[in-house]
Predict the 3D structure of the following.
Amino acid sequence: MNKKKQLNITLLVAATLLSAHCNADKLEIKPFFNPDNQSAAFFKKSVAFNSASDFLTVQEKSWEYETDLKHEKAGNKKATNCKTLKKLLKEGYTAAKDYEYGFVNAQSLTCSMWKEMATFKPYSVSYMNDLSLNKDFATKAPARFALLISNEEIKKAESAKSWDSMSQIKKIDLVNDMRAIYYDSTGGIQRLTLMAKGDYNGDGIEDRLLFMENSVE
């Protein structure tokens, strides 16, 4: 894989499910999936995922960019798709080169995100029609959305009321309806992207899957 593609996904740290409580509307809506699905990091061309089942199928789809992994006792092996990557990591394999650890971790997170997206189904009730990635969102999102870099901050987040109360968001760049960049008072930069909307847990209510990339100025 070329270095540019590695850099594009190295900063990925989490995918988080969000629920909110706004005015409910009775709906019958198919799941939504963001066309920017991170597949270009594994294949020469982005793969179009049009349904939840596509995300399940891609777990075994062979990558065009294999990943080298190492094991202290078993030697080196190559991960050729999400299924083999997860299997090898579970068996104790790690990145073949230390500087690629973050990259392999990002690959694993992307595979996990796709697996979660495969479970999204049509929903009939939404509490999030008025929820947008803006300043108000930061006051409603839980504190675990904050960029936490110390044990003290992690402990503080357990009792904090919201993301904004932890990070003190000072500026927001709205890239589009699905992506926003949040800047906090300590130099943290958090890029949040809406990846999916649908019923995640079978209760008929809309859930959302969000993709967050963190960095520091």
In short: Helices lie at 3-10, 52-57, 82-90, 101-117, 135-140, 151-157, 163-167.
